[in-house]
Amino acid sequence: MSDDTHNNDATDESPDDELPDDVTDLLTAIADMAAMDADDSAELSHVEVQITCGSEDEAHRIASTLVDTRLAACVQRLPIHSVYTWDGQVQNDPEILLLAKTTSDRIGDLVDTVVDLHSYDVPAITAVPIVAGTTDYLDWVTDMTRPVIPDD
User: Fold this and answer.
1) Cα separation, 100 vs 79, whole angstroms
2) How many domains, the chain?
C-alpha cells in the first residue's frame, strides 16, 4: 500500500486514543486463544504478527521499536510485492513484510505501537498462533518479551 494513498490524516473519524474495530477484534481473538483450556488446544502463548510496510525505512523503524521495547523477541523483514484493491483501483506495490515473534500477552501493546508508528490509514496487521516450536526457542521468545523492571 503506497505511502501517498494511506498516510494518516487529520480527518480520521476515530479518536487517537480509541482503537479501530478491526484492531479490537484482533485483540479479542488473541485474548480468546490465550484463554483456551488445555482440553481445547495446546497452549497458544506465542504468536507471529505479520505487518506490511510501505518502505524499508518504515519497516526498520517499526521492527527496531518492537525489539527495543521488548514487544517482540525478533522481527524478520522480507521484501514482497502486494496486489490489492484500494479506493476502487487495483494496486501493485512493493512492500516490506515484517514477521514479529511475540507472546499473546504482549500483542495488545505491539498492535498499539505499530498503529501509532505506521504511515498507512489501514495497516495490515495479522496474528498467527505458533502452535509448535522448539522449547528453547519459545522460551527465548518469552524471555525477550518480558518487560524490564528497573532496579530501585
Assistant:
1) 15
2) 1
